[in-house]
Design goal:
Elements: E1 2-5, H1 11-21, E2 26-29, H2 38-43, E3 51-54, E4 57-60, H3 62-72, H4 83-108, H5 118-143, H6 155-169, H7 178-188, H8 191-199
Parallel strand pairs: 1-2
Antiparallel strand pairs: 1-3, 3-4
């Protein structure tokens, strides 16, 4: 099994999940230029990361990869044991992917959405940061009284951890969100998370 990634990008969530699972895999670091080369585009025509290759099976998109890894390795307990538990994991995975990650796109690349107008780009990025604060507050409330988003460790927790790293990178203030910070501290202390971070040169 092979995972293609950029350091610190969303594939870090799958990298953490692979460490939690504890089976052999290979992590392949790419540059942005390499994602536009023909060999890689044959795997992922969008020229993006992550891409997971499992034998003759090729899968893209973080949410799909995390679901696949969890379903493929039920003994790791990263998806849930019952239909309702699995639904909750997928709910929070969708929240991370479709709500938080999507909004970060407006923070990382606002000029794309404003035709290069820098003044408008600053407004877009500022509004997106405000939206992210409200989304993280929602996650903070969910973690009150819980160590994990669903009550059990899941692939959604790995994704949320990566998104919190992005918030710190972009200096998005999260005042009073003590549950999120405690969650972040717990995961940073996790040996599997430390291993993934070290592998990507982030520790």
């Amino acid at each position: 099994m092979k995972l293609y990634y950029f350091p610190g990008a969303c594939p870090l969530a799958s990298h953490i999940a692979l460490e939690w699972i504890g089976k052999p895999y290979e992590a392949v670091r790419l540059t942005r230029e390499q994602t536009k080369e023909a060999d890689y585009l044959a795997l992922n025509p969008l020229g993006a990361v992550p891409t997971l290759v499992d034998g003759d099976f090729v899968l893209t998109q973080s949410a799909a990869i995390l679901n696949y890894l969890a379903e493929l390795n039920p003994e790791a307990g990263l998806l849930g044991d019952t239909p309702r538990e699995r639904a909750q994991t997928r709910r929070w995975l969708a929240f991370c992917n479709a709500d938080v990650h999507k909004t970060f796109g407006l923070v990382f690349g606002p000029a794309y959405y404003t035709n290069g107008d820098e003044a408008q780009a600053r407004i877009v990025a500022g509004k997106a940061a405000e939206k992210l604060q409200s989304l993280f507050a929602f996650a903070n409330d969910r973690l009150r009284g819980r160590d994990w988003l669903t009550g059990k460790r899941s692939v959604a927790d790995a994704y949320l951890f990566v998104l919190l790293m992005w918030a710190d990178l972009k200096e998005i203030p999260l005042p009073g969100q003590d549950e999120l910070r405690a969650f972040q501290t717990r995961l940073r202390a996790d040996p599997a998370v430390q291993s993934a971070l070290k592998s990507q040169g982030l520790s």
